[in-house]
Design goal:
Order of helices and strands: HEHEEEEEEHEEEEEEEEEEEEEEE
Largest sheet: 7 strands, mixed
Helix content: under 10%
Structural class: mainly beta
Shape: elongated
Number of strands: 22
Oligomer: single chain
Strand content: 35-45%
Number of helices: 3
Radius of gyration: 24 Å
Length: 366
């Protein structure tokens, strides 16, 4: 009888191993299984090439490279069970790795209870800092200690869902050195080992300005402005998509902002002291400004459905135009403004590009 019992136990253990779960259990739950996740920074195909006029060159040649600040420098993965308890809270810090920052991370393994629906929260660059209201002082972009979320404790779902990012002044920007990113996914974890591909979204709108100087003379660019920039946004995205984000063929069909009506919008001002030469950066006549990053928003202008306008000041004269075909500014959007300076004035064009292409490779990441 003892031999029979031993054989049955060995058979059961082998069967569990074959289907991918270990024999260990806690609290009478399902067996522990391996959950493997791969995460990439999302790159929507939303409204790509939505320009009303084309520049005389390919703007993507000037805006394709991503800085380390647009990649994941740290990544926190929080796994939440159906009862709201925190199963894992793990921080990956890439500062000591060869690259230091990645657009994708593959094959991160967790031991989890199988056979249930889980939520996976992703937070990148949580320690990023920005200018505070007091001059010369910085503060955390994300005003929450994510490291304090205890394994086994209750996840503060509503509190984090309502958590906001804010900018303090009309010249304040998100830090280009480390952009905040976040996302929440729901998965159905089988009672067996499982792999899932996930994405994380930059909580920023990127702006690139290119000046194509065809006038044959130099200009002094002293400032630029963008109307109806938002001073607040939700930290976690509240967004709906048309298409499949994991397949890479999708667009933003709707999103929510914490603004009440048209409140908390302002005129963003960027002081500059830049010479726009006839030669440009590389002899082509094109001068590129350093990109900058603002919050998402969807101001509704009753007088003009284009909603957003901009201005630049050249040699003391201010020139203004609407952003053509840009009715809202969802996060993870890259707005590229091309201003052509001719002998008789300025020509404006705006392209909305996918925010960086992402290829998910096996191994640690890229």
């Amino acid at each position: 009888m003892r031999n029979l019992f031993a054989h049955v136990l060995a058979f059961l253990a082998a069967a569990l191993i074959l289907q991918g779960c270990n024999l260990w259990e806690f609290g009478g739950g399902d067996g522990l299984c391996e959950l493997t996740v791969s995460i990439s920074v999302s790159a929507p195909s939303a409204a790509s090439k939505a320009a009303t006029s084309k520049a005389s060159f390919d703007a993507s040649d000037y805006v394709g490279a991503m800085t380390d600040g647009e990649k994941m420098q740290t990544l926190r993965i929080v796994i939440v069970r159906p009862d709201g308890s925190i199963e894992h809270n793990r921080l990956l810090d890439f500062s000591a790795t060869a690259k230091g920052a990645y657009t994708s991370v593959s094959d991160v393994v967790f031991e989890v209870i199988g056979g249930e629906r889980k939520k996976i929260y992703l937070f990148a660059n949580e320690n990023a800092r920005k200018a505070a209201a007091a001059e010369g002082v910085t503060e955390s972009v994300v005003q929450y200690d994510l490291a304090s979320l205890p394994v086994g404790g209750t996840f503060p779902e509503q509190e984090l869902s309502d958590l906001r990012i804010s900018l303090n002044s009309d010249t304040d920007e998100l830090p280009g050195s480390a952009l905040p990113m976040s996302e929440c996914h729901t998965i159905d974890m089988p009672a067996s080992d499982y792999h899932t591909d996930l994405y994380i979204t930059r909580a920023a709108v990127k702006f690139s300005y290119l000046f194509d100087n065809q006038s044959g003379k130099s200009y002094e660019l002293s400032s630029l402005t963008i109307s109806k920039a938002s001073s607040i946004e939700y930290y976690l995205p509240r967004v709906s998509y048309a298409g499949d984000p994991l397949a890479g063929d999708y667009s933003v069909s709707g999103f929510e902002v914490p603004n009440t009506g048209n409140n908390n919008y302002y005129l963003y001002k960027k002081p500059l002291g830049k010479t726009i030469t006839a030669e440009g950066d590389d002899g082509s006549g094109v001068t590129a400004l350093e990109p900058f990053y603002l919050l998402e928003g969807k101001y509704l202008d009753s007088s003009d459905a284009r909603n957003y306008s901009m201005s630049v000041t050249l040699d003391g004269t201010q020139y203004s135009a609407y952003f053509p075909d840009v009715a809202s500014l969802p996060r993870n959007t890259h707005v590229v403004v091309v201003i052509t300076i001719g002998a008789y004035g300025l020509n404006w064009s705006v392209d909305v590009f996918p925010y960086g292409e992402v290829i998910l490779n096996p191994g640690f990441g890229q």
